[in-house]
Amino acid sequence: MMGGETVGLEGDDLGTPYLRFERRRSLAWCVIDRPDSRNALTSAMYFGVRRAVDLVNRDPDLAALIITGTGDVFVPGGELRGREPDRWLDFPDLLGIDSTPFEAIRRSPKPVISAVNGLAQGGGLLIAMLSDVAVAGRSVTVRAPELLRGIADTGYAAYLPAQIGIARARDMLLTGRVVTADEAERWGIFTRVVPDEEVLAQAEEIAVQICRTAPQARLQLKRIINDNYDRVDRMTFDALLYSDEMTEGTRAFAEKREPAWVPPEFRTGGRL
């Protein structure tokens, strides 16, 4: 409800001005475009990416979806500063894991390709990892900084060890370290790394290649492959979503300081 009237999404509307759904022949593009906040995903944007996956799967005229960002950022993760100018009035918060696009991408019958044009962190890195193929520009860096924000991301705990191995997953998650595109390719986060200016064209070519394969046979192989990921503990994620640590971690991020739990001798005087 908005202003007492029922509001529904029609056509290719993704429910937020910061996402564009573009049709280019048989391919659909979901373009993330929120430059003033470095493409940080609001709750409505998370839901909108999920809707883009649904639109492609319901439309017989569309064969695949490509997700990309604008400028030098793919997705840095979710909006942690409380600035959500596209918030759906009179609707409950959409932050819960049910409204994120991760499982929709993982289970999508039609191909989903990520064209990683720049920085990819948090939920943005999960979108890329769970796509059928992720192609990244050579200057791209990635990381999973959730523990620095007080977030127990059980999605990462389920997906990342299966993707890159337990030791590397622990390294990334427990330190929040930055990983280069070349490292990410060697580890299996990305399957292809190309010059930055070739990312979009390469993603389109990959989509075309996948669309030449038999849809039903492809779907069965994809299901078996993706079952190698562990089960996501959604109850734990939801239970800790508004914990004291997450409240402090996100507040510290918004205030550009370190969280209170960092021992004084380890503080650097800025945002982690």
Topology overview:
Elements lengths: L18 E6 L2 E6 L10 H16 L5 E6 L3 E3 L26 H5 L5 E5 L2 E3 H9 L2 E5 L3 E3 L10 H11 L1 H10 L3 E2 H7 L4 E3 L4 H13 L3 H12 L7 H6 L4 H11 L18
Parallel strand pairs: 2-3, 3-5, 4-6, 5-7, 6-8, 7-10
Antiparallel strand pairs: 1-2, 8-9
Helix pairs in contact: 4-5
Instruction: State the end-to-end CA separation.
Output: 38 Å
How much of the polypeptide forms β-strand, as a percent range?
Answer: 15-25%
Quick check: average pLDDT? 92
> Total number of β-strand segments?
10
Which keywords apply here?
single chain, about 270 residues, alpha/beta, 6-stranded mixed beta sheet, 4-stranded mixed beta sheet, globular
Describe the protein's architecture and organization.
This protein has 272 residues and is an alpha/beta fold. It is built from 10 helices and 10 strands. The chain has helices at 43-58, 102-106, 122-130, 154-164, 166-175, 181-187, 199-211, 215-226, 234-239, 244-254, and strands at residues 19-24, 27-32, 64-69, 73-75, 112-116, 119-121, 133-137, 141-143, 179-180, 192-194. α4 (154-164) crosses α5. The termini are far apart.
Give a quick precis of the structure.
This protein has 272 residues and is of the alpha/beta class. It is built from 10 helices and 10 strands.
